[in-house]
Here is the input.
Amino acid sequence: MAACSVEELLAKAEQDEAEKLKSITVKKELDLEFDIGNLLASDKNRLESRDFREQKKEDFLRSLARDNTQLLINEIWKQPTERVDEAIVTKLPDTVTPLPREKPPPKPRPPTKWEEFARLKGIQNKKNTNLVWDENAKDWRRRWGYKRAKDDTKEWLIEVPVTADPNEDQFAKRATAKKERVAKNEFNRLKNIARAQKVKLPGVGLTPVAQQCKEDLVRAVSVARTSTASVGRFQDRLPKEKPPKNTGKKRKFEPLIGNFSTEKQKQLDLLNLMNGKKPKLDINKAVDNQIREEKREEAAARYKKGAGKKGRRGNMPGKGGKGKGGQTGKSGGGKGSKFGGQGGKSGGQGGKRRGKLGKH
Amino acid sequence: MTQLDGIVKPKTKRSKRFLEGRAPKLTEDVKTAMIMKGGNSSLTVTQALKDIYSLKKPNAVLYKKKNITRPFEDSTSLEFFSKKSDCSLFLFGSHNKKRPNNLVFGRLFDFHVLDMIEVGIEKFVSLSEIKTSKCPEGTKPMLVFAGEAFDTDNEHKRLKSLFIDFFRGPAVTAVRLAGLEHVLHFTALEGKIYMRSYRSLLKKSGCRTPRIELEEIGPSFDLVLRRTHLASDDLFKLSHRRPKTLKIRKKKNISRDAFGTKLGRVHMQKQDLSKLQTRKMKGLRKRRGPKVAEDPDAQAPKVAKVEG
Here is the structure.
C-alpha cells in the first residue's frame, strides 16, 4: 500500500514536471541556429505554405514567431546570470555571425625619417628625468618649459664672444636661431606627413644661402629664365652660354615610314626581354641592402653591450627616479630637429622656405 | 605642401576629439543609419520610414527634406551624406509608378556602397495604428529569421545579413533579462518577406524559464524583393577582415576535455638523479674534495656570461 502510494506520487510528480515543461518546450524538425551574442535565431525548417493559406495569415505568423522566440528565450536563459542593482543580468557570449566593418581597421603610423634613422643606427630613446638641479636657483627645476632650469631666455646680459662681431645683437641672434629651429622642425614634420601619405613633394627650389656657389647661380639663372609667362621660350641666350640643365626631355618620335629593319629589331628585343623572365639583379641595391643590414646588426649588438655595462646614466643625484616618461617625447622631438632634417640644406632658410612653398 | 590632400589638421582640441571619434577604430562603435526619402514618396513610405526610425532611434538620423537621388543609378550623393553624418547604414524610400512604395536598405564600407537591396511594400501597418503599449525606445531587439530561403538563396542570405546589421542595435556584453521585450520576426515565404514586430510577455511557467506570449506592436511589413546590388566577393571579404590585434590567439599547451576540465601540458627536462637530495645522514655527508678541481668549474660559466 505504502509502496504503491510512493509510486503514484512519483508518477504524479513526473507528470507535473512534464506539464510544466510542456508550456515552454517547442518541437521542431531541425534545431534552430542561435547567435546569442546578437540575440539572433534562425529557423531553417520548411514552412508549410498550405498551413499558411488555410489559417489566418497573421495567426500563423504569430504562432511561428512565438515558437521561435520561446526557443530563443530558452537558449538565452541557459546563459550564466548575475545580479546587478536589483536586476538579473545575463552575460552574452561573443557574436558568431560575421558582419562587415564600418571602416577599414586603422593603420599604424609610418615611421618618421628620424625613427627610420634611429632604427638603422640602433639608437633608442633614453628616459630623461623631468627635474634638473639648477645651480643658480639652488633648486630642482623642470628641464623644459615655464620656470625651467638654466633658462637662457631670461638673461639680461650676454657676453659677446671674442670671435663675434661686437656690433651684433646677441639677443636677436638667439631669437632668430630659435625661430629657425622651430621652422625647420615644422618643415620636417610636414615632410614626414607627406612621405607617410606618399604625396609627391614639389622641389624645394632655390633657397637663399649666405654664399652662393657656382651651381646655385647657374640654377638660379635657369629658374629665372623659365619663370616667364611663356616658360622661357623667347628668352635670349648669352654668347657661349651652356645649355641649361634639368630642363626636361623633349619627346622624340620615330618616323612613321623609315627603317624597317631597326623597327623589327626593336620588337624582337622587346620579345626577348619579355620571354627571359629573370629577375634583374641590381648589384648596387643589393650591396646597399647588405651593408645596411650589417650596420643595423652591429648597432644592435653594440647597444646591447653598452646597456649591460653602463646601466642607466643619470646625471642627477638623488631624485633621479622622479618624473618618469614625460620627457621622452620631448627629447625625441629635439633630436628630430637635429638629425631628421637631412633633406634640407641648412637650418637658416627654414622660415623663408616655408613662405615660398605656399606658391608651389 | 601646406595644402596636402586629405590631411586635416585640427586647429582646436575639440575638433581634434571630433576627428578622433570619426577615425577608424579597432573596435567600432554602433553603426548608425540615415533614413531619407527621395523626390517623390507616398504616405505609406513616409510613415514606414518614420516607424523604422523609431525602432532604430538612438542610432539613426532622419533626413527631413527630400533628396532627389536614385541610389541604384548613382550612389555618390549617398556616399557624401554618409560622410557628413558618419553613417554606414541607410534606408531610402521612394514612390513612383514603376516601383510603388519602394524602400532601399543598404550599408556602406569605408564610405562606399557595399550592399543595396530594394524592397517594395505590399502591405504596411504602422506603429500608431496598433493601439497597444509599446516597447521603450532603444530596446535591443531579439531577431528571428524563419524560412529556408534565408539559407538557400544568395540574395536572401545577403538580405538577412543586412537586416541583422541594420536592426541588431548596440553590441553588448550583458542584457537585463526583464528587458528582453522586443522581437523582430522575419519570415521568407512564397517569395515574400514578412516582417513583424512583437512585444514579448514573459509569463510564469513553473520553471525558471518563462513562457513567452507575443503581442503585435507594429510596424509590420509585407515586402517583395526588387533590384539588388550586392558587393563583389573581394570587397565583401575585405570588409569582413578583422584586425590582427583583435583576433584571439590560441594559448599553447592548454586544453579542455569533454567535462570542461582545464588541462595543461608541461614540458620538463630530464631530471639529474645524481643531484637528488635524499635523506641527510652523517654517514652520507659529502667529503670536501680538493679545491683545485672546483675552481675551473666555477669560472667557466662566468666567462660564458660575459660573451653572451
Summary: Chain B touches chain A through 73 residues (CB under 8 Å).
